[in-house]
Amino acid sequence: MTGDLSLLAAVRFVVFDFDGVFTDNRVLVGQDGRESVWCSRADGLGVEMLMRSGVPALVISAEKNPIVTARTGKLGLECIQGCDDKWAELERVLAGRRLAPAVVAYVGNDVNDRGCLTQVGVPICVADAHDEVLPLARLVTERPGGRGAVREICDANGLLLVADEV
Fold first, then answer.
1. How many CB atoms are closer than 10 A to CB 146?
2. Cβ neighbourhood burial of 92 (10 Å; 0-12, 13-18, 19+)
3. Residue 161 has what pLDDT?
4. 58, 13 Cβ separation under 8 angstroms
5. Contact (Cβ atoms closer than 8 angstroms) between residue 108 and residue 125
6. Taking residues 47-69, what's their average pLDDT?
7. Beta bridge partners of 29
8. Which residues contact 140 (CB under 8 A, 6 or more apart)?
9. In the predicted model, what is the mean pLDDT of residues 7-35?
10. pLDDT single digits (tens) 105-138
């Protein structure tokens, strides 16, 4: 991951976008209209280790999709879907948890993540994020979305170690 990894020392909550972060941003549509996406099992194990270490995580997705429900459910991740204004929703969540944006890492990949990326303490983009949001990131993964980027973040030097101290 590129950027100052010491930023992760302050993180107490990690929020992920889904499409383009947990997936490679592609969708396979069958002739019956059913959709499928590719996700990395390594990402799932990374999330499990992150949560087991005491760092809670959340997915906020603009799209409402049974794929998101199924994957986040399997991973035991809290998930908010169908969210047009991700920052307004995240702000509400943070108020409920009594967390300041400064202790939050947000992982995104596209322009609809801009609000969250500009408001949290540790904005992170996946390697293949849209050109308009990459400059907003303080950390950028080496792996693209859906190909181990989530695991890279969960394994990042400091994030799991900080959780052990909490």
1. 23
2. exposed
3. 47
4. yes
5. yes
6. 91
7. 35
8. 1, 2, 3, 124, 125, 126, 127, 129, 134
9. 93
10. 999 999 999 999 999 999 999 999 999 999 999 9
CA–CA distance, 3 with 139 (Å, rounded to integer): 5
CA–CA distance, 34 with 137 (Å, rounded to integer): 34
Alpha carbon of residue 139 to chain centroid: 13
Length of the chain as a residue count: 166
How far apart (Å, rounded) are the C-alpha atoms in residues 102 and 2?
20
DSSP letters, the chain, are: -EE-GGGGGG-SEEEE-STTTTB-S--EE-TTS-EE--B-HHHHHHHHHHHHTT--EEEE-SS--HHHHHHHHHHT-EEE-S-S-HHHHHHHHHHHHT--GGGEEEEE-SGGGHHHHHHSSEEEE-TT--TTTGGG-SEE-SSPTTTTHHHHHHHSTTHHHHHHH-
Nearest to 18 by CA among 49, 74, 76, 58: 58
Distance CA 57, CA 93 (A): 12
